[in-house]
């Protein structure tokens, strides 16, 4: 994607078990309750304040709404169809700016880890990016020690293309850079 590309309005996406809907203002209290846990934030970008402030989720949601309004990013709340009725995590997507080598981010409440929910959400957002939007690829990153995030990228057919030093909430450390091309994603049997 050229650096000037804008995101269209964030659509509602569905999977067999999830509804991915745009983040909204009233999500802030749920995010404030679910997000500020060390096992969630330790591998995320060091820009996230830690300890997480009492108004952290409100500020985050305001930034998400502004980014969506300006076409900079899409931010989805991850809602299980079988409950609970509120979000259990967030997944984001943004165009390739030609510099950052990162286009998708996510987090999930640890209570819901190990059930394949984030893989399912990542598959649907990848389908949206590569098929609906027609992007040729996605750049993806994760802290090297974040094994669950790494496994999602491997399952999707991403190729490890670089290892660099990244700044995470838990400190500086190795960060893996992946490239997921539309062809590689489709070749491994993605559903479109």
Q: Describe it for me?
A:
With 192 residues, the chain is an alpha+beta fold. The chain has one domain: Aminopeptidase (3-Layer(aba) Sandwich). Helix content is 30%, strand content 27%. It has 6 helices and 8 strands. It has helices at 28-34, 38-41, 56-69, 117-132, 147-156, 182-187; strands at residues 13-14, 18-22, 74-80, 89-93, 104-108, 137-143, 159-168, 171-181. The strands form 2 sheets. Strands 1-2-3-4-5 form a 5-stranded antiparallel beta sheet, sandwiched between helices. A hairpin with a 3-residue loop joins β1 and β2. It is globular.
SS field, number of helical segments: 6
The percent of residues in helical segments reads 25-40%
SSE arrangement, N to C? EEHHHEEEHEHEEH
Largest sheet: 5 strands, antiparallel
Shape: globular
Derived from helix and strand composition plus strand pairing, the structural class reads: alpha+beta
Q: Which fold does the CATH topology refer to?
A: Aminopeptidase
- Briefly, what CATH class? Alpha Beta
What is the typical, i.e. mean, pLDDT?
A: 95
The share of residues in extended strands comes to 25-35%
| Uncertain stretches | none
In angstroms, what separates the terminal alpha carbons?
20 Å
CATH architecture: 3-Layer(aba) Sandwich
Our Rg estimate from Cα atoms comes to: 16 Å
Strand order of the largest sheet: 1-2-3-4-5
- Integer tally of domains: 1
- The tally of beta strands, per DSSP, is 8
CATH level-four homologous superfamily name: Gcn5-related N-acetyltransferase (GNAT)
Summarize the entry for a quick read:
With 192 residues, this protein is of the alpha+beta class. The chain has six helices and eight strands. β3 (74-80) and β4 (89-93) form a beta hairpin.
């Amino acid at each position: 994607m050229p650096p000037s590309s804008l995101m269209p309005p964030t659509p509602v996406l569905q999977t067999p078990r999830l509804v991915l809907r745009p983040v909204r203002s009233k999500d802030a209290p749920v995010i404030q309750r679910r997000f500020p846990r060390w096992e969630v934030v330790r591998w995320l970008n060091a820009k996230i304040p830690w300890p997480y402030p009492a108004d952290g989720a409100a500020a985050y949601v305001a930034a998400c709404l502004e980014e969506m309004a300006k076409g900079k990013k899409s931010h989805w709340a991850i809602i299980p169809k079988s409950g609970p009725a509120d979000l259990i995590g967030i997944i984001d997507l943004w165009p390739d700016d030609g510099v950052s080598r990162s286009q998708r981010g996510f987090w999930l409440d640890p209570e819901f880890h190990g059930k394949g929910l984030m893989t399912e959400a990542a598959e649907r957002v990848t389908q949206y990016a590569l098929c609906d939007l027609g992007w040729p690829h996605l750049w993806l990153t994760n802290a090297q020690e974040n094994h669950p995030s790494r496994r999602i990228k491997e399952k999707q057919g991403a190729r490890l293309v670089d290892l660099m030093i990244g700044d995470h909430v838990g400190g500086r450390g190795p960060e893996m850079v992946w490239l997921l091309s539309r062809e590689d994603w489709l070749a491994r049997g993605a559903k479109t």
